[in-house]
Amino acid sequence: MQTKTFAIVLVVLGLIMMIYTGFTYVTTEKVVDLGAIQINKEKNHLVHWPPIVGAISLVGGIALFMVAKRK
What we know:
two-stranded antiparallel ribbon
C-alpha cells in the first residue's frame, strides 16, 4: 500500500511540475533603520525548474505504480 501511495504522489507532483514550472516568493530586507524611520526593500526570488523534471517524476510514478500493481 505504501508503494502505491508514493507512486500516486509522484504522478500528481509530476503533473503539477509540468504545468507550473516555477514560483516566486518575496523577502523583506531592512535597508535603513534611523529610530522611528525605517526603509525596507522587497526582493523577489524566482525558483524555477525545467518541465523535464516533472516528466521524469510522472514517468517514474507510473512505472512504480505498475511494479506495485504486479505484486
